[in-house]
Amino acid sequence: MNPIAIGIHGGCGTLARDLQSTQDWAETEAALEASLRAAWTILKAGGSALDAVEAAVVVMEDSPHFNAGHGAALTENAEHELDASIMDGATLGAGAICAVRRIRNPIKAARAVMENSDCVLIVGDPADAFARRQGLAMVENGYFTTARRQQALASLKARKERGTLAAASEAERHGTVGAVALDAKGNLAAATSTGGFNNKPAGRVGDSPIIGAGTYARNGACAVSCTGQGEIFIRHAVAHDLWARMHYAAETLHRASDALIHDVMKPYKIGAGLVAVDAKGRIAAPYNTLGMARGWIGPDGVLHLGTHEEMKSLVLAS
Amino acid sequence: MNPIAIGIHGGCGTLARDLQSTQDWAETEAALEASLRAAWTILKAGGSALDAVEAAVVVMEDSPHFNAGHGAALTENAEHELDASIMDGATLGAGAICAVRRIRNPIKAARAVMENSDCVLIVGDPADAFARRQGLAMVENGYFTTARRQQALASLKARKERGTLAAASEAERHGTVGAVALDAKGNLAAATSTGGFNNKPAGRVGDSPIIGAGTYARNGACAVSCTGQGEIFIRHAVAHDLWARMHYAAETLHRASDALIHDVMKPYKIGAGLVAVDAKGRIAAPYNTLGMARGWIGPDGVLHLGTHEEMKSLVLAS
Predict the structure, then answer these.
(1) Do A212 and B240 touch (CB under 8 A)?
(2) Which residue in chain A has the smallest CA separation from B75?
(3) How high is the pLDDT of residue A78?
(4) A124–B203: do the CB atoms touch at under 8 Å?
(5) Is A33's Cβ below 8 Å from some Cβ in B?
(6) How far is the alpha carbon of B211 from chain A, nearest alpha carbon, in Å?
(7) Is the pLDDT of residue B168 over 80?
(8) Which of A30, A198, A211, B188 has a CA between 20 and 30 Å from the CA of residue B29?
(9) What is the DSSP letter of A75?
């Protein structure tokens, strides 16, 4: 059988251990595992990388423990504006939506844009309307809200008023989710979904829905999904740059990924991470913060996941 | 004196000669010349590439003969939704807005996002509100409307109903404007502004406001602004790819520009063009359609402009 692989991330940041309960961390890891297994089941059955990354992201969107879908960050107006994108490495087909408010699973809307419209990117209310016409599940904006994000927003606003907003807020700023996959036909795909960051200005859009910045996939080379301060990822077109380093400069996936996260991002002093897979199913998942929720199953069928430095491993039944 | 240069485009397409009167074509050329002269005056006085590209784009936004600002295309709802972006090659600072309705000069709002916010991209109504707070000139949405676009929209809708919509509509689909510049300090900058295309779906956003797709600038290499079917430019991250080809593969500006417009775009059978400048002030302006409104002034101080194959040249007083 040709190699297959799935890699996911649930955002990077300081991920301070005491910011969540032991149960919260356990649930986060369980969701990572469920996300990986959902994708793996598809890939093992000969399904497409596109179906796999969508399924992986949906699990994280539906979990309250990630900043995407249910559990997403709140804007300065205490609302949710969600962004997502998906790309098919076989065709370079791509779809994205941003600043949507009513779509239960934004990644499904991104895929519908790719497959059922002439657009790559639809923004705002028309994107919600498009998703509704596509028959996707719609929710009230409040569906996305969790007590944790409300508390974080209140805390951020209070600290901002007191002028004591510091780097400690980093933990509340990230949490984008993403997935990359290689299927048995050799096709690569990538998907990314986010709520942005807590207290973000209304209308602000980061790299997650931007093809070439937060998401990129191209057969024969790589698929990649990014997390971190989106403004810097856009300026460096990080996702496309990973492909360009491999394609034009013959860098390996690991070398290119490390260069982007550890060298290119260094002067900006921002949190940054990505997960990427190459055409052989090798996975890279570098980050420059204290932690990144992440996991992967490579061609060897071993599942790895973790939120901090140490990882758990699990040999899946073949 | 160090080399300085300005290059502009006013969109590519079939530009059928009989689609506009002789006077319209003369006015289009006059606007191109005014755009080039506005930028050149800034560059000659030691001004910045950023100021030059903004000034060049503002002239085209204010002219009814281009699909940006006044004269912009109409959406399927007979409204205007405008997109723009700008990038500073010296810092990689960037700003963009999309789906805005009330900002007289979208390129000024993009620059304000870059300089006066923590964002790179702001979308929709919040972008209009941001521009208003920045003190930029605001207009009613109808300010952007011209009789030509209204007629084109009516014609498109009629043909769509009759099912006779064909490639002939290409002429109405493009017209994005853009500018690239090299200043005496060696700094590069790029700017792009558009109304999208006539009868575009509400909420659809193309490559123009996407850093890395429609616009990119990085000192030491190139600045570039694209025009054409944005969906394909996003999928290939064309603007960043131009930089990547020069940086990683040591392609010249002309070779990289020609490869993108003539080779990469060929299988898609779409209209495509770009204008780009390198660190020595050399200008490339390839297009694969019958015409592209364009012009440039290189380090030799000779002004070139045209809308079709033949170009006019004018030696400027030094």
Answers:
(1) yes
(2) A126
(3) 96
(4) yes
(5) no
(6) 6
(7) no
(8) B188
(9) B
What per-residue confidence (pLDDT) applies to A161? Answer: 85
The whole-angstrom separation of Cα A127 and Cα A107 is: 12
Of B123, B210, B244, nearest to A124 by CB-CB distance is B123
B81 touches B110 (CB < 8 A) = no
Per-residue confidence band for B156, with pLDDT thresholds at 50, 70 and 90: confident
- Closest CB to A235 among B94, B124, B213: B94
User: Residue by residue, what is the 3-state secondary structure of chain B?
Assistant: CCCCEEEEEEEEECCCHHHCCHHHHHHHHHHHHHHHHHHHHHHHCCCCHHHHHHHHHHHHHHCCCCCCCCCCCCECCCCCCEEEEEEECCCCCEEEEEEECCECCHHHHHHHHHHHCCCCEEECHHHHHHHHHCCCCECCHHHHCCHHHHHHHHHHHHHHHHCCCCHHHHHHHCCCEEEEEECCCCCEEEEEEECCCCCECCCEECCCCCECCCEEEECCCEEEEEEECHHHHHHCCHHHHHHHHHHHHCCCHHHHHHHHHHHHCHHHCCCEEEEEEECCCCEECCECCCEEEEEEECCCCEEEEECCCCCEEEECCC
Rounded to whole angstroms, how far apart are CA atoms A201 and B109?
16
Mean pLDDT of B310-316: 93
Per-residue model confidence (pLDDT) at position A1: 77
User: Chain B partners of A201 at a C-beta cutoff of 8 Å?
Assistant: 117-119, 122, 126, 130
Q: Which of residues 61-90 of B touch A (CB under 8 A)?
A: 87
Residue type, B274: L
Cα of A91 to nearest chain B Cα, Å = 9
Interface of A with B in 92-151 (CB under 8 A): 92-94, 98-99, 117-127, 129-130
Q: Is A210 on the interface with B (CB under 8 A)?
A: yes
Predicted TM-score (pTM) of this structure: 0.97
Mutation for A interface: B103, B123, B130, most A CBs within 10 A: B123
Which active-site residues of B does the annotation give?
Answer: 176
Predicted pLDDT of residue B40: 98
Confirm if B107 and B54 have CB atoms less than 8 A apart. Answer: yes
Nearest CA in chain B to A76: B126
Please tell me if residue A260 touches chain B, with a CB cutoff of 8 Å.
Answer: no
pLDDT digits (tens, 9 = 90+) for B261-279: 999 999 999 999 999 999 9
For the record, the structure tokens of A186 come out as 């050799």
State the pLDDT confidence band at B318, using cuts at 50, 70 and 90. Answer: low
A203 chain-B contacts, CB cut-off 8 A: 122-127, 129-130
Backbone angles phi, psi at A194, to 5 degrees: -155, 160
The contacts of residue B220 (CB under 8 Å, 6+ apart) are B279
Read off the pLDDT of residues A100-122 as tens digits, 9 standing for 90 and up: 999 999 999 999 999 999 999 99
Q: Which DSSP letter does residue A268 get? A: G
- Among B141, B165, B139, CA closest to B152: B165
Instruction: Kindly report the average pLDDT of chain B as a whole number.
Output: 94
Pair of tokens at residue A231: 């403004």
Rounded Cα–Cα distance for residues A257 and A9 (Å): 14
- Do A231 and B122 lie within an 8 Å CB cutoff? no
| CATH for the stretch A5-308 | 3.60.20.30
